Every structure is written in structure tokens, then in C-alpha cells.
Amino acid sequence: MESPSIDTARLKESRLAEWLREQRSVLIGYSGGVDSTYLAVVAREVLGRRNVLAVFGRSPSVPNDQSDKALAFAAQWDIELRIVATDEVDDPRYAANPVNRCYFCKSVLWAVLCPMARDQGMTTVVDGTNADDLTGHRPGSRAAAEHGVQSPLALAGLTKAEIRELSRARGLATWSQPSAPCLASRIPYGTPVTPERLQQIDRAERGLRALGVTGDLRVRHHDDLARIELESRLIDEWLLPDNAQRLVQAVRAAGFRRVAIDLRGFRSGSLNVLEGVAAA
To answer: From CA 48, how far away is CA 43, in angstroms rounded?
Structure first.
């Protein structure tokens, strides 16, 4: 017997499917995360392969292995996927790293994807924004609105927890995948976003994953200091002397001189809190 929560989620999924049918075809801004993966699979099921195009934007802000994972997913679920290069790091407004940095990033992305949708005859451009994403500091949503991008998961009222549950029911490996915002989100506002800093963060996080660090993870970039955020339940384990030494060595190998484990644990958007653009 399924729980009432999954029953509610399935009702919302039906609402999502109906909305997709009304669009007839969609181009999905695909990130490889929990939300856009679920959306792509449902869209493929409802509309068929010819009427769904997933597009992945590759740039220095995206971890190096993410595009390979996107290609593997698309092959597994028979979804047409295209990878396009985006150049937001070359935009001085983005590179300056203001508090609305995400607005400039998404503006670049949708400026590429929306004309592509028209060229391919796709009626609607969509993203993976869910109902939980409608609050908080999210300047990227303004760029989506300006380009007419729709957010069907949010329109259906689907929350992150419901999307994870529905993804698990469908056998999607992403159902338990940690959230993975762009690498620039690890750099404090006002500190320029450069390919070198982004690569340094990517190397450090990949090094920690190789050690066996699971769950949500961030390596926050503070010049020569790396501040590691782990899930609270894992901190005691990784503070054991041998484990802590391995963490420090892995992050120093990425180019940081000093390393600190944040005892407060992982906090989504912690740099937004530190900069005063989001509530603690």
C-alpha cells in the first residue's frame, strides 16, 4: 500500500503530464540534477522521443564529469540530448560575481537555448525549477521569466522531496543524488569568478568524492583557504585524525594552501547567508 504522500505526488505528476501534453513539444534546459532528470523522463514518456530535446550547457562553471553523466543518462532513457558550450565566464558582469550573478548566467543560457528551440520547432522551453525553488534568493528565475521559460514542476506543485520519491519509483538513479549547483556558487560574492578558481574547486570536490565522502558536499573558496562543508552526520567520522589528514591532503592537492572543516556542517546557500542576501 503506497503512502498518502506518494499518492499526492502521483496526482501532481498527472497534472504535470497533462500540462506537457498541452505543450506538444518541449526543449528542456537539462543540468543532470534530480529535477531536470525527472522532468526529462516524464516528458519523454508523455510526448515521445521526437517531441523532447534536452540541452546541457557545458562551461567552466560545470563539473568536468557532468556532461559524461548527462550523455549516459540520455542513452539509457532514449532521450535526445545535445551539449552546447556557454560562455558566461567571459561575461564581465558574471565574472565580477555580484549577488545576482545567477541572473547573468541564466541569461546567457537561455539566449542560446530559446533560439535553438525555435530552430528545432519546439513549442516550449522549460527548466527544472520545483515548487521549493519559488522562495529564497534566486535571481536566475528572472532571466527565465524574461525569456519565456516555463517551470512545469513548480506549476504542478511538485516539491523536491516528491520528485525524489517519484524518481525512486521510476528507478532513476538520481533520486538520491545530492544537489549540485554550479561551481561558482562556492565563491564568495565580489571575488571574481575565473576558470582557475572553478577548476580548483572541481579538483578538490572530486578528490573528496574519491576518498569516499558521500552526501551533500561543498568546498567553499576563500582565496588560499578551502572551507569544507560536509553533512552534519558525517563530520565526526571525517574529523578522526587519519580521515582529517586525508581530507586535507586531497584539498591541498587541488591547490589550496589552508583547509578547514566547517563544524556547522553543510548549509545550502551558506554564502548567501554570509553575504546577507538570504536569511540564516
So the answer is: 7
